[in-house]
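TICKET: design request
STATUS: open
ATTACHED STRUCTURE:
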């Protein structure tokens, strides 16, 4: 089967990103490596460096104004993950180091930042003018309307929908099949609006990503719901039982109106599905 690198630009992202995603996929495809991990990390790094996406540079702010990011990589039997990491340029590269250099699966918060510095990742502010403005709008909303904050995070989304203040989208992810082996990577600034300390599905194996000997799966959308359904493992374990596109469609549709999307590769297929717009990019090569 040909090699495949499939990228997404987030559940809710519009198709204006398609050209950029295709370009990132084909630039990455020209790498000499035979290791699928290199392909997913490099393509996610390119998307993190693109300020249009809610990952790395351009990550959205939390309600308190801080930026905390989640990222993860996975190949068969190995996972590296960072959650609530701050002031690094490329969380996905730190996640790879967690996998390769530590006995752990996940590092979080200040421990993840300390580890990143020890690995040579410099202090970096991922704020952009766009995310600063989004945050100011959110603060105005909360101040102006005297909204009593609901207990459950998911309630925030209802308010976001009703009042139309900026929502999460444009997070990034990649799955690859290279030489018959699989890898997955994901990176996000999270689902705005969210509290400081909130961790979404993205860094959680089984929820936001999964990779094994039969394929790789990456999810995007409202993290809390994705975690509740263990979405990526739920899809992974059905790989090979019926067409991949059919599995993705059924699983995504089981979320009803909750925004969600997914990309996946298997031994002989690749597919993506989302219940709203979701930009994707792809490269295949022999
Ligand atoms: N799933 C991510 C999160 O909840 C956000 C996204 O994919 O849009 O943090």
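STATUS: resolved
RESOLUTION: sequence designed for all positions
ATTACHED SEQUENCE:
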């Amino acid at each position: 089967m040909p090699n495949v690198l499939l990228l997404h630009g987030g559940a809710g992202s519009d198709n204006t990103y398609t050209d950029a995603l295709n370009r990132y996929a084909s630039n990455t495809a020209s790498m000499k490596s035979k290791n699928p991990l290199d392909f997913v990390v490099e393509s996610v790094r390119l998307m993190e460096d693109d300020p249009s996406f809610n990952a790395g540079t351009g990550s959205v702010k939390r309600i308190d104004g801080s930026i905390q990011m989640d990222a993860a990589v996975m190949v068969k039997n190995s996972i590296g993950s960072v959650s609530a990491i701050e002031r690094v340029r490329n969380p996905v590269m730190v996640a790879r180091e967690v996998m390769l250099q530590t006995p752990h699966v996940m590092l979080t918060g200040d421990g993840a930042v300390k580890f990143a510095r020890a690995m040579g990742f410099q202090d970096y502010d991922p704020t952009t003018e766009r995310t600063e403005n989004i945050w100011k709008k959110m603060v105005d909303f909360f101040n102006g309307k005297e909204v009593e904050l609901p207990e459950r995070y998911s309630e925030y989304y209802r308010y976001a929908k009703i009042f139309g203040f900026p929502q999460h989208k444009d997070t990034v992810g990649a799955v690859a099949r290279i030489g018959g082996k699989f890898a997955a990577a994901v990176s996000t600034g999270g689902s705005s609006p969210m509290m400081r300390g909130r961790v979404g599905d993205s860094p959680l194996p089984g929820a936001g990503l999964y990779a094994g000997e039969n394929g790789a799966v990456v999810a995007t959308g409202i993290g809390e719901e994705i975690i509740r359904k263990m979405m990526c493992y739920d899809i992974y374990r059905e790989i090979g039982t019926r067409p991949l596109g059919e599995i993705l469609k059924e699983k995504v549709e089981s979320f009803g109106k909750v925004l969600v999307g997914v990309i996946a590769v298997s031994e002989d297929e690749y597919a993506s599905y989302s219940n709203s717009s979701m930009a994707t990019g792809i490269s295949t090569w022999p």
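CLOSING REMARK: The pocket of aspartic acid is lined by residues 10-11, 168-169, 171, 188, 190-191, 200-202, 220-223, 226 (CB under 6 Å). The first strand starts at residue 3 and ends at 11.
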